[in-house]
């Protein structure tokens, strides 16, 4: 059994896009990421010894560095994290700690490489560090039959030197990157039980938006499982949100959908349904002081998601900003993201779907026909009734 590596520090790297901002914006974004990192660790009860922030890097001291690194890797604005062993920037100290790390991670006959990155003035080069540590490993661990391979090593030992400190590590956990939550405003996120909408919400969160989920309860045109799945998905997203996603709104939508089916041409059902959803979401956006509405639409995914029909649907939104993060994604890309963020298994559970969908939905709705169909409905009263019936369900964090 491999000995536990005595990691004592987490190296936190900020998202690449943050690094290309102007100095004032970059500083504000990085400080917001640091705030969220503190929030993430505190919520999970991870012990923190200290925070050391400098432009472009954050070093978190913790006796639970590996656990902390994994938690921080779920913070938006973080590109990656590494649990590390800290020491001084003295070359001999680096070699000593590097050998200690090598002894614990390298197995017999494995190949390895040493990589070094330095910031600051030192009486040696990065190559000097790699050469000395590599030689020390080959000499002191000669019984293991190790060999150096700089192209495709089995293991890497990485050294980061910053000023009078050095950090040695062998693992890196990828983060989501993007911008820190709350840096780009708020959106109402239409959240169904399917694969697309939770991924769309997550992508907007990665861009710094706080998302407020809104689910349309289609019963009796769908089953209880659909609502249960939507609530599960919201909880996963809430975990990514560091508690900033405090609730999900649920709209009782079955009666409204029944009126559409009873009074309007069947091929227009989906287009009319989506238009009402945007109207209701727009009302909630004003109440919540959100900047717009987010959907999981992608071009051609469904009959209502042709470019033509999306334009017809958006006409009902008037001046409302509609954000569609998945507009040009294909299903394979969406599935990969869903697996990464933890929503795939929930979305993949079987459910009844929407039984109100027509057999032959139009892919090229005529705006005049849509407006004529809506004359048979009391649009204002239907929206008002749906909005007045909205329920709030609190989302606990962390899950």
Task: Name the helix and strand elements from N-terminus to C-terminus, one letter apiece.
Answer: EHHEEHEHEHEEEEEHEHEHHEHEHHHHE
Largest sheet: 9 strands, mixed
Average pLDDT for all residues = 95
Percent helix, as a range, is 40-55%
Distance between the termini: 31 Å
Number of helices: 14
Category from helices, strands and their pairing: alpha/beta
General form: elongated
What portion of residues belong to β-strands? 15-25%
Q: How many β-strand runs?
A: 15
Radius of gyration: 26 Å
Question: Low-confidence stretches at least 5 residues in length (pLDDT < 50)?
Answer: none
Describe, in plain words, how this protein is organized in 3D.
With 399 residues, this protein is of the alpha/beta class. It contains 14 helices and 15 strands. It has helices spanning 16-19, 23-43, 65-72, 91-105, 126-140, 196-206, 224-240, 254-263, 269-288, 307-314, 331-341, 344-347, 367-374, 379-388, and strands spanning 9-14, 50-54, 57-61, 78-88, 111-119, 147-148, 155-162, 165-169, 173-174, 186-190, 210-217, 247-252, 292-294, 322-323, 391-394. The strands form two sheets. Strands 1, 2, 3, 4, 5, 6, 7, 8 and 9 form a nine-stranded mixed sheet that branches. Helix 9 (269-288) packs across helix 14. The two termini are 31 Å apart.
